[in-house]
């Protein structure tokens, strides 16, 4: 065995250290993806109640006893006002407090898990009052995807697309400007492709195809440009840090499989400040609610896009500074 081989073996970590690192990585992945789902339940979930003040007070008290802290109640004068609030994404659903014909209004397009909870809640109300409420889905999911699995599953490819774009462009394309152009071009083509599959093949979307593809493209661009900028400034460590943030925080905390208000603690709010969560919320709003409630998530995506551009600009500026600094001339030998 050569001395070089021996030196290389000495620099390598022991097998036990590698096993421990792999175990830690596996544990982190499990916690990141399983913990939010396992602890999912309503937490200050916006819910409307339509009816006279006395009925609203009684129902609010009953809901607080059934699910303490589960709902943030908003009162509405009548059913029509509650329906408008659902369509404007002010609430996820509503209860029409009519003693003769009680009704529970849901919006499965806004979150199938929330609609299921409200449907179960209707059964409890019927058992208490002796009259089974009618359940009406005000904004339903498409008939081709009644459980919303396509939209929920589409969150992961969106994140992976942004990460893969940054990684491949960094390795295969020279020049920061060309990498940025490639990331933007891929965001457009990726948005068009993903929206076409989800809307025309799987039937998971409604609304304008161009608006849906635009939201997806903005999400991919926000992720890929941010990672490109981090790699430009910090190197491989920056790319790895950004990718881990998007994958281990952004994707599990996006609320795509339930709702941000159903995630533990303030993690749902954090998830909405990251591109995967903001992109998913904006996509629901544009695809099913005519853009209602899309303002804030689109602003978040825009901020991430600007951050990515600024990081790339900082990386380009640093490169120009390094090239502008002249190399030190070698000292000439002194002759005696």
What does it look like?
The protein is of the alpha/beta class. It has two domains: 45-137, D-Maltodextrin-Binding Protein, domain 2; 149-323, no CATH class. The chain is 63% helix and 7% strand. The protein contains 13 helices and five strands. Helix 7 runs antiparallel to helix 8 (176-201), helix 8 (176-201) packs antiparallel against helix 9 and helix 9 packs antiparallel against helix 12.
Mean pLDDT: 87
Number of helix segments?
13
Query: What share of the residues lie within helices?
Result: 55-70%
Apparent shape:
elongated
Could you give the order of the helices and strands? Answer: HHEHEHEEHEHHHHHHHH
What is the radius of gyration computed over CA atoms, rounded to a whole number of angstroms?
Answer: 26 Å
Strand order of the largest sheet: 2-1-3-4-5
Largest sheet: 5 strands, mixed
Give the tally of structural domains.
Answer: 2
Residue ranges: pLDDT <50 for 5 or more in a row? Answer: none
Distance between the termini: 49 Å
């Amino acid at each position: 065995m050569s001395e070089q081989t021996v030196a290389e073996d000495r620099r390598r970590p022991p097998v036990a250290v590698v096993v421990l690192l792999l175990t830690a990585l596996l544990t982190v992945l499990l916690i990141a993806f399983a913990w939010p789902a396992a602890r999912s339940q309503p937490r200050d979930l916006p819910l409307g109640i339509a009816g006279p003040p006395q009925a609203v007070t009684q129902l609010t008290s009953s809901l607080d006893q059934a699910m303490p802290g589960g709902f943030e109640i908003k009162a509405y004068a009548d059913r029509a006002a509650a329906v408008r609030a659902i369509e404007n994404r002010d609430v996820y659903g509503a209860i029409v407090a009519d003693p003769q014909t009680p009704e529970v209004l849901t919006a499965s397009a806004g979150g199938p898990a929330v609609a299921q909870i409200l449907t179960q809640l209707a059964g409890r109300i019927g058992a208490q009052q002796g009259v089974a409420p009618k359940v009406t889905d005000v904004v339903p999911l498409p008939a081709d995807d009644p459980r919303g699995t396509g939209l929920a599953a589409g969150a992961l490819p969106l994140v992976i697309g942004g990460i893969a774009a940054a990684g491949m462009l960094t390795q295969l394309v020279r020049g920061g400007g060309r990498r940025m152009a490639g990331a933007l071009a891929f965001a457009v083509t990726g948005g068009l492709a993903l929206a076409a599959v989800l809307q025309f093949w799987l039937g998971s979307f409604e609304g304008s195809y161009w608006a849906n593809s635009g939201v997806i493209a903005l999400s991919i661009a926000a992720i890929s440009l941010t990672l490109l900028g981090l790699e430009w400034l910090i190197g491989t460590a920056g790319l790895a840090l950004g990718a881990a943030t998007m994958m281990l925080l952004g994707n599990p905390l996006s609320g795509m499989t339930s709702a941000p208000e159903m995630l533990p603690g303030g993690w749902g709010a954090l998830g909405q400040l990251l591109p995967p969560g903001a992109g998913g919320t904006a996509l629901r709003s544009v695809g099913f609610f005519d853009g209602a409630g899309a303002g804030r998530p689109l602003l978040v995506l825009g901020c991430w896009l600007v951050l990515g551009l600024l990081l790339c600009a900082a990386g380009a500026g640093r490169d120009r500074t390094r090239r502008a600094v002249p190399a030190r001339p070698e000292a000439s030998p002194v002759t005696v």
